[in-house]
Amino acid sequence: MLRSDSVGALPLRAVGWGAALLSVGCGDASPGQEPPVEVQIRIEDRSPWHVHEPGRGFRLRVTAEVRAGARIRSLFAQWFDARGTAIGRRILMVPGVRKVLASPTGVHGYVGLRFGSTEQHVAFPPQPAGFGSDEYGFAWLSPSRRLGHGRLGVVHADVLLDGREWDPCLRGLHIKTLTWNTVSPTAWSAHLFSRSRAGLLELPVIADKGWKSDGTRPIEDDELEALGAKFRGLVRSGPEEQYWELGVEENLGGRFTKEPCYLANLASKVRRMRAEVPPEKRVRFVYNLEGFEYADHRRFLASAAAREFQVLASHPYPWPDFKSPETWLGAHVQRLRALLAAAGRRDMPIWFTEIGLPVRGNRDPAGFFGYVDSGNRVPGATRDAAARYLVKCCALAIAHGVERTYVYNYQNRGADPRSAEDHFGLRSYAAQPNTPGFPLPAYVAFLTFAQQVAGRRFERLYHPAPGVWSVEFRGRLLVWVFPEAKTRVAWDTLYPGLSRSKVREAFDLYHAPRALGTDGLVVDGAPVYVILR
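Now predict its structure.
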């Protein structure tokens, strides 16, 4: 994942009862048009994470604020489900008047609240005038049990509400939030302990300042000594067993070939760091490469540097259109395993330390979304498509033996409706620190998957009927159709000896119940959980 500075900052803050305020400046009006009027939406929610107890409704206090003297004749709110279908009628809003809105009934997992106007000069930042506001999401999820540190993780899950409270739905997941430039060695152990106490296991990253070196020349002894000295305090104050990811995609752009000393320097740096590990500690190093640059994988695995690492990490981003993982994920893992076998590292674990896709956040389907500076367009996904994509990626990664998968990332990095980089999050952007934003459908879908497979042994990936994909974990199945179509699968076709009486329940990505027919289950492109008795 290429990183870039976010633009178009969207102030979003939690205050008092859990209020969130949206406000950004708008452009000038065109000649002959009314000047744009920006609408600030204030949402007060008793849950600061905007996550509520399943099966129970909630109420919001909502105020639409405009500048003094602004004229708006049409202003409304409306609820939507995770698939973008409107729920009920539009709700009239009066500027400056607080309105209490009750959550809709009969909805599971996720619901979104949008604001709009029929007047073209009304703007809901960061959208331009004439387009509705971005969606404010709310989730129904139970806080995670302490699931044990298993196969799933999240990148940049570093939101601490009021500086002390972690998202309770993340318990039991791995996270990747700290770099060795984040805190001092004296505070390092306390930071890792706070994560462990919250049920999270950190994968620290060594990158940027103090790590990067000039790959056009051999690294100097004093550079290695500085590297070892900095690592010494961290590794000795950390836990007894620890993984460290070294570097963040610094091998992109052909550095393997453009910088002749890159790999030799990498080997020297890792050996120097290994020398600082006390004998009583078990430390393993992780190295990441861009997902589909197989020639770079081959160069790395043939080098002395590869012998210093215990885990091979991949960042498989199928730019620009992010085809469904059935078309590439299994083949990608097989290719990596073949490269490892050829290098004599057949048993080296494979991790995905970043995986995800950009979700198109603006309302203008003809507008630009991608990389503004280069002009490269990226189609982007709908919110529901992103939820399907992430769940299928995680399920297929487990099925193909990927030991650990980290979703990129916890929260959107910016609010620019043009920028693909800003929109990879499970939650919406928040400009102020320690503010969690609002859940997106993918947040509910990913955490539902994590809870459903926690502690359950993977059994097999199989195709019970043409086009039907089934990932079996102990006591439950995850089933969908690809290429996408709707079909009915007989119970005994779905699973040998299965009948309706042996199925306890079925539900979708958002835990909404699915009808159980006497003769089988209707499935389509959206994964469905089948829970066996």
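DSSP finds nine helices and 29 strands in the chain.
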